[in-house]
Every structure is written in C-alpha cells, then in structure tokens.
Design a protein that fits this description.
The complex is a heterodimer of chains A (about 180) and B (about 150).
Chain A (H helix, E strand, L loop, with lengths): L1 H11 L3 H23 L2 H16 L11 H19 L19 H20 L3 H12 L4 H8 L3 H24 L1
Chain B lengths: L6 H7 L8 H62 L9 H36 L8 H5 L6
Helix pairs in contact in B: 2-3
Classes of the chains: A mainly alpha (about 180), B mainly alpha (about 150).
Chain lengths: ~180, ~150
C-alpha cells in the first residue's frame, strides 16, 4: 500500500521507471482478469494495453483513493465490459490457459489441474457476464464487495446478490456435471 | 463432500496464470511513455498561468504582511509617544512626513482594513510610480489622508 503510494507519487512527477515498475507488478494479474472475463488472450492483451495507456495519460493528476491493484482491476473490468457488449452473442474459443493451481504435485494432481484448467473457464463462461464479473473480481482479484460496488457504480446489495446467484448457478452446474 | 460444496475455493484456485508476451510489453510501454510525454507537455503549458497566479498571490500576501507589521509598529510608537510630553520643537521634516503618512495609513486601515491599505498603496504607486525622490511633500500627501 505504501509502496503503491510512493510509486504513484513518482509516476505523477513523470518517472517512467515508476510507471514501468507498476506495469511489471500488475500486468500478469490484470491479463489474467481480462482473460477470465473475455476468454480471449489477444483481446485481453489489448485491454491491458489500453488500460495502461489511459493510466499513463493521467500523469501529474492521478489521485489514488484505494489500492493500485483495485483501481487497475476496475479499469480492466470496465473496458472488458465495453468489449463484451460489442461482441455479445459471439462465442470466442479459449486459447490461453498456461497453468492454474500451483499447489498440486505429481501426475494425478497435474491431470486434475489440466482438467480444471479447461473446465473452470468453461464453467465461468456459462454464467451471465454480470455475475461472472463480480465473482472474478471478488475471488480472483480479492476485491471486497463494497470496493466492487463503488468501482462498478452499483449498490452493494446488487453486487452481493449477483455474487450469490452466480455461486448458486456454478454449484448447480457442477452438481449436474458430477452426477453425469 | 461434493466438489460443489467448496465452489469458492475451486474458483479461486482456477485463476488463470497468464503472462504477457514481450512484444505486448514493448508495445504497451512504448505507447504509455508516449502518452506520458504528451500529457506532461499539455499539462505543463496549462499549469504555467497557475504559477503566475500563485506568485501574484504570494506577492500580495507578502505586501499585506509588511503593511500589518508597519501599522503595528506605528500603533506601538504612537502609544509611546502619548506618554512622553511633547518637546514642542523637533524640526525633522522626514519624521513629520513619516508621521503623516503613517496616520493616513492608519485611517485607511480603520476605514477598510487591509484591502483599503492595499488600494491606497496601489493608487500611490499608480500616481507617482516607484520613484518618489522628485515629488514634493504636498504631492506626496495629497489624497493619502485616509479620506
């Protein structure tokens, strides 16, 4: 948090080194978020690119109210939502997952991980975008409901209900998959 | 336990670990640095009048502070003077000039505070300019008696 503030302070004074450090620190995390939301790595890379260029344009006037990760995640989520609106109805294939769970070990674990790597994005993709967005921001980006509500311009009740419905739907889908 | 019981944990663990390509990194950083340069150029030209305003404000504040100190000194001196019986003959023209000027300043201050003082100084400067060596005593005191 303090490091964020120092980096932002330097960035606001035109330090390109500070900007580079911010980019290096958050790029993969933000790409993962964009990939989770859009399911297309090349579009996700474009989103991350656009977010950082827009962020660079705020040099000298950028005011950080929360965390840098939260701010950039919100930017990615907003940009991804715009893109999703444009291509609603299109079904984009995934070509991106490089690894997922790093806690497993040994061949059986890896097998499960590989299955999960393909399974989970498909699972999330079966949710309405609004529910997926809230779930990904909360569980992947570790943003609080209040933070998400502020970022998306929604009430906290709406965010919580979207999350609840999303989790319920995932549970139903997963139960059906297990009983098959 | 069914897998769905721990759905949150499952989703959390399924976070994609994607990495950006070096080509994307270079493109993003290059474009961002260009955007930073453009933004800083625009903002620096936009901010320059602000600096001018700031310096004007600082000068005004400094002038006001100097006036307050001068008035304070004058009031203190005036008080001391009342306690000392007049000698009747001082013969110091400069001192009289200062005294009358101070009185006019004091009256201005009583009339309209620092703004009135500021206005009087400005009017005096407008009328006579910064150099007053060639101006007669009458001209100097005309219109500066606080009225």
């Amino acid at each position: 948090m303090i490091e964020d503030r120092i980096l932002v302070w330097k960035f606001n004074r035109g330090s390109k080194d500070a900007f580079r450090r911010i980019y290096e620190e958050h790029k993969n995390d933000l790409l993962g978020l964009a990939v989770s939301l859009l399911r297309d790595k090349s579009i996700a890379e474009d989103v991350v690119h656009d977010v950082f260029v827009s962020f660079a344009e705020t040099v000298g006037t950028f005011n950080l109210s929360g965390t840098l990760k939260g701010y950039l995640s919100t930017c990615v989520a907003n940009r991804a939502r715009d893109i999703n609106r444009l291509k609603t109805g299109q079904n984009v294939e995934t070509d991106f997952i490089e690894a997922t769970d790093t806690t497993s070990d040994g061949p059986p674990g890896n097998l499960i991980v590989c299955e999960r790597a393909n399974f989970l994005p498909d699972l999330l993709a079966r949710l309405p975008y609004e529910q997926r967005e809230v779930i990904v921001l909360h569980l992947h980006q570790e943003m609080r409901f209040r933070e998400i509500a502020g970022a998306l311009g929604l009430s906290i009740n709406t965010v919580q209900s979207r999350y609840r419905y999303g989790i319920k739907k995932l549970r139903t889908i997963l139960d059906n998959e297990v009983t098959k | 336990m069914k897998p769905s019981d721990d759905i949150e944990k499952l989703v959390r663990q399924g976070k994609p670990r994607s990495t950006t390509s070096s080509r994307a990194d270079k493109l993003t950083l290059d474009d961002s640095f260009s955007a930073m340069d453009r933004a800083m150029q625009t903002k620096s030209s936009k901010f320059s009048p602000g600096r001018k305003n700031f310096s004007t404000i600082a000068i005004r504040i400094a002038a006001a502070a100097a006036i307050v100190i001068a008035v304070g000194l004058f009031l203190g001196r005036d008080k001391d003077k009342r306690e000392v019986p007049p000698t009747g003959d001082n013969g110091d023209t400069n001192r009289e000039t200062k005294l009358i000027s101070m009185m006019s300043l004091r009256l201005s201050y009583q009339r309209g505070g620092l703004d009135a003082l500021d206005e009087q100084f400005r009017d005096t400067l407008d009328a006579f300019g910064p150099r007053s060596s060639g101006i007669s005593m009458r001209d100097l005191l005309e219109g500066t008696n606080g009225s």
